[in-house]
């Protein structure tokens, strides 16, 4: 039994504390549908806020570089075989 306890993850411990871990036979008990719905609403509220945030300018610049086929990072010489820094980008 001690070997089994040493393999438990932090997630297993958290689930057990919340009463959501496996039953006595080791079988995982599914969450109640009301609890699932509540968790879903809370996750949607969190992620809706994240989705509403603007994309950082640096990400937009990188996406533009990808769209234009620019594979070199700023300050590197795309003509250099190893992409080493240019004189200005040292």
What is the approximate shape?
elongated
Task: Count the E strands.
Answer: 0
In terms of per-residue confidence, which ranges show pLDDT below 50 for 5 or more consecutive residues?
none
Portion in helices: 40-55%
Largest sheet: none
What is the H-and-E element order?
A: HHHH
Indicate the proportion of strand residues: under 5%
Radius of gyration: 25 Å
Distance between the termini: 59 Å
How many individual helices? 4
Structural category: mainly alpha
Q: Give the mean pLDDT.
A: 76
- Integer count of domains: 2
Please describe what this structure looks like.
The protein is an all-alpha fold and about 90 residues long. The chain folds into 2 domains: about 1-30, no CATH class; about 30-65. Helices cover about 50% and strands about 0% of the residues. It has helices spanning about 1-5, 10-15, 35-50, 55-65. The chain is elongated and about 60 Å long. The termini are far apart.
Concise structural overview:
The chain has 90 residues and is an all-alpha fold. 49% of the residues lie in helices and 0% in strands.
Strand-helix topology:
Blueprint: H1 2-6, H2 10-17, H3 33-52, H4 57-67
Relevant terms:
mainly alpha, 2 domains
